[in-house]
Amino acid sequence: MSSYDPGGEGAKMSFAQDMSYIDYLGLDPILGAQAPRSDAHDEMLFIIQHQTSELWMRLALHELSSAREALNRGEVRQAFKMLTRVARIFDQLNGAWDVLRTMTPSEYTKFRSELGASSGFQSHQYRLIEFILGNRNRAMMKVHEHRPELHAMLEQELRTPTLYHAALHMLEAELDVRFDPAVYRMEDPHSASEAVTEAWLTIYRAPDDHWTLYELAEKLVDLEDYFRRWRFNHVTTVERIIGFKRGTGGTSGVQYLRRMLEVELFPELWSLRGAL
């Protein structure tokens, strides 16, 4: 029996003059970007897990920025698709923690010193995601001062209304109300507003009359739900691998991550549930 030749069915087999799969995806620099600094077997896992997470965050930023722009243009249905995709991206990121948790504390100890002061705490993409979603804190910018181009990117985001701001403007238009300008703070985390809660309650008490805003609210809750799960899995993974040691970047480690679990991105959308 002869070997199967896909070329006999028309598959292109020569790429000396044409773009290939490797060329289109730029795989050479991507697959050449893993450079373990030790002989520890598990350092490759650690590097790839974080590199792929950054790639997924790159896509999340693309979708979140586009969703915000779509909401500002009134293209709500298009934004729904993007927000759904971001929620699923964080579901994918959650799965990455499951892989990393196959590494034991003993295995991590073999190469942890090679990290120096580097830490996921320094991820500018994660910080951009937080800023777009409304968890803004100028003090967190300092860690990026050594990279002026990244610092400028974060600075620009601080001057841009958040995704939730775009949703609140739609809420104002739907109900013909105006929120206090303090609701739209740009450089501080969003703080719950009683007026905003009451406005969302109006939507939830008559969803059939305000279906677009009702669906938008649920898309935001779904997104935050997956985001919270990702944060929770981050905490449990770190505690499982390093316990309560300080993080390589100098944070308090698990204690710092646990504080992040208390952050609510869209607090009114959660608190209204107890009032219905």
Polypeptide structure, described:
With 276 residues, this protein is an all-alpha fold. The protein is built from twelve helices and no strands. Helix content is 58%, strand content 0%. It has helices at residues 21-25, 27-31, 43-72, 76-100, 105-109, 124-133, 148-158, 163-175, 194-205, 211-242, 254-261, 267-271.
Helix content: 55-70%
Strand content: under 5%
Task: Compute the average pLDDT.
Answer: 91
Given the helix and strand composition, which structural class is it?
mainly alpha
The total count of helices amounts to 12
CATH fold-type name:
Methane Monooxygenase Hydroxylase, Chain G, domain 1
Q: Please compute the radius of gyration using only Cα atoms.
A: 22 Å
**How many structural domains can be distinguished in the coordinates?**
1
- N-to-C SSE series? HHHHHHHHHHHH
Low-confidence segments: none
CATH C-level name = Mainly Alpha
Envelope shape: globular
Please summarize the sheet with the most strands: none
CATH architecture: Up-down Bundle
Number of strands: 0
| Termini Cα gap | 71 Å
Can you summarize this structure?
58% of the residues lie in helices and 0% in strands.
Task: Spell out the key features of this protein.
12 helices, Methane Monooxygenase Hydroxylase, Chain G, domain 1, 276 residues, single chain, 0% strand, mainly alpha
Secondary structure: elements and pairs:
Elements: H1 21-25, H2 27-31, H3 43-72, H4 76-100, H5 105-109, H6 124-133, H7 148-158, H8 163-175, H9 194-205, H10 211-242, H11 254-261, H12 267-271
